[in-house]
Specification:
Radius of gyration: 21 Å
CATH class of the largest domain: Alpha Beta
Strand order of the largest sheet: 6-5-14-15-16-13-17
CATH architecture of the largest domain: 3-Layer(bba) Sandwich
CATH topology of the largest domain: FAD/NAD(P)-binding domain
Length: about 400
């Protein structure tokens, strides 16, 4: 039998990003103690740039009593305003005076909020624990080995170690590799009083050479980002080895002829520019093997275009907690988790990639049809065409059946 010992249940969690602390807290609510293992030597409060926690993700985080902190530290996103490269208004998603569609927050801040709450709940987080091997993986327990020579055994393991998951490569060696979308994401945060603040509105511009977006906090703090085509299969390490001054020249050339305030944002930026290659995951046939299950970016990483990566991760965390709580047989619990989540997350990954492709029309014919069709697309989006994504709800008190 592969049922969890109800007297001494222990989970090992690999990765302390967004999914790791969240699943640890939901497992605790389900009566399962866990330990989170992170390969970094210490918390990185400045990891990544910023992200969107959509309203479906906020509902999940409200169950963990951290949504108010996200609202306090984030920027309420009410509407996205779309402009073409000449400044023509193509349409909006949402209403500036309506309810927030989500909150834009620094990734490091979101990570810290989740870590701090996990620690407050008594969940151990161990740093400097890089997974190197899974020495034993049966239907009743799993043993992992770390690069510091230590090992640990638990009843099951939850892999939250991201798109380039070491766990996935070990337990699911036949799983597809992440796919490079052909685009880079870059951006930063700066103080810039010359950029007009329109509360709750994120401006998105289909520039002449590349896409650009920005949003302003009340303190004149501008969050900005862009996308550009980039050949090959770059790694983040390789991109960050390129001098910052070279990136500044590249971005200045991309946006020099675009509408205000884009050139000013680029030229006045004195902070470090974050550069990230955009990968996503093709459908992974199997999300679990014996006593190991993958969640979040480790199994269904999405490009950032739909603003759903963090929300999907915490949805996974909540649903896995429910499955473990309600289905004693661990393999059946993992199978139920995959069956419940798979269609939704694969649809979001596909949708997000489609949005990314729309951003990069460059020749006149593509631009003409994009500008022609975009208002129609945005009008449809405002007629509840995306309720399937943003109004999705998970009820913690609803029982899961195998």
């Amino acid at each position: 039998m592969s049922e969890i010992n109800q007297e001494n249940r222990k989970a090992l969690i690999i990765g302390c990003g967004i999914a790791g602390p969240a699943v640890a807290m939901f497992l605790k609510k389900a009566g399962v103690e866990s330990i989170v293992y992170e390969s970094d030597q210490q918390p990185d409060h400045f990891s990544g740039l910023f992200l969107n926690v959509a309203r479906n993700g906020l509902r999940v985080l409200d169950e963990l009593n951290v949504s108010d902190q996200i609202k306090q530290h984030g920027i309420a996103l009410h509407a996205m305003r779309m402009l073409n490269g000449k400044g023509k208004h193509l349409g909006d998603i949402g209403q500036p005076s309506g309810q927030p569609q989500g909150y834009t927050i620094l990734r490091g801040t979101l990570n810290k909020i989740l870590r701090d709450e996990a620690i407050r709940q008594g969940i151990p987080i161990m740093y400097g624990k890089k997974l190197v091997a899974i020495a034993n993986n049966t239907e009743t327990e799993v043993t992992v080995q770390f690069d510091d020579g230590t090992s640990e055994t638990g009843q099951f393991l939850v892999a939250c170690d991201g798109i380039h998951s070491r766990t996935r490569k070990i337990v699911l060696p036949a799983a597809p590799e992440p796919t490079y979308t052909g685009l880079l994401s870059f951006g930063g945060v700066q103080q810039n009083r010359s950029v007009r603040n329109e509360a709750g509105v994120q401006t998105m511009v289909f520039g002449k050479k590349a896409f650009f977006g920005y949003m302003v906090r009340e303190q004149s703090e501008t969050y900005w980002f862009g996308n550009m085509e980039y050949p090959g299969k770059p790694t983040r390490r390789a991109l960050m080895n390129i001098p910052q001054e070279q990136w500044r020249r590249t971005l200045d050339g991309l946006y020099a002829d675009d509408i205000a305030p884009i050139p000013d944002i680029i030229r006045s930026n004195q902070q470090e520019i974050g550069i990230f290659p955009i990968y996503d995951m093709p459908p992974v046939p199997q999300w679990h093997h014996r006593s190991v299950v993958l969640i979040g970016d480790a199994v269904h990483a999405t490009s950032p275009n739909a603003g759903q990566g963090a929300s999907m991760a915490v949805e996974d965390a909540m649903m896995l907690g429910k499955c473990i709580r309600d289905i004693p047989n661990i393999q059946h619990a993992f199978a139920a988790f995959q069956a419940i989540r798979r269609e939704r997350v694969e649809r979001i990954v596909k949708y997000s990639r489609t949005i990314g492709q729309r951003k990069h029309a460059t020749n006149p014919v593509q631009v003409f049809f994009r500008d022609l069709m975009m208002p129609i697309f945005l009008k449809a989006a405002n007629k509840d065409a995306h309720t399937w994504m943003y109004d999705f709800r998970i009820d913690w008190n609803e029982k899961v059946h195998a």
